Amino acid sequence: MSCWMPGCPALSMCRGLAALPITCLERAKDLKSRLGILLHKPELGHKTGSSSKLQLGSRRRDSSRDVLEWRESFDQLLKSKSGVNAFHTFLKTEFSEENLDFWLACEDFKKTRSKTKLASKANRIFEEFVQSEAPREVNIDHETREITRKNLSGATSACFNEAQAKTRTLMEKDSYPRFLKSASYQDMSKQAASRGTSKRSHT
């Protein structure tokens, strides 16, 4: 770009560049060319993309295997975080999610190490799920309820064991078989099985 008019911006820019030492100009050119190479390297983006695709594929295979394992036993379902979430969603349709919530609260309670927190948590769980007319009362017999009440006087990590076991048995014998027969689980297992078949056909 050239300009003969006085005060022209292009003319003053050219003069400014001409005044710079030659080594500065060479360094600027070198830096520009290096940046250009880095920005146009195709393998950088390609590697990142393929890595994320592999991780996504792995997650899909894991979740497919998980879904099919849920029908093997109630234990397998409870070991899976996504299984617990799916079962909880199903229980909501039957208005009985308090059984699973109580079981999960007991599992969390057992991990409590502080004696002070143990006592306060025990009372909170009892008031929410166990006592008669509790807001989210679980379906356990009177005897189990009374045993649990007595356990609160010297709360330990085992004070809900009997009530939790009764609730678990109820879910396993009653809700779990219906969950496996539900349309939602049937759809999930079909999708998981088809992904497994598709994977085998590509290997």
Protein architecture, described:
- The protein is mostly helical.
- It has a domain at 60-192: Regulator of G-protein Signalling 4, domain 2.
- It has ten helices and no strands.
- The protein is elongated, with a radius of gyration of 33 Å.
- The two termini are 61 Å apart.
- Residues 1-5, 9-14 and 37-59 have low confidence and may be disordered.
Secondary-structure-derived class? mainly alpha
Helix content: over 70%
| Cα shape | elongated
Low-confidence stretches: 1-5, 9-14, 37-59
Sketch the major β-sheet. Answer: none
Order of helices and strands: HHHHHHHHHH
> What's the count of strands?
0
What are the key terms here?
203 residues; mainly alpha; 10 helices; elongated; Regulator of G-protein Signalling 4, domain 2
Give a brief description.
By secondary structure, the protein is mainly alpha-helical. The protein has helices spanning 9-19, 22-39, 42-69, 74-79, 81-93, 97-110, 115-130, 142-151, 161-181, 183-201.
Secondary structure topology:
Elements lengths: L8 H11 L2 H18 L2 H28 L4 H6 L1 H13 L3 H14 L4 H16 L11 H10 L9 H21 L1 H19 L2
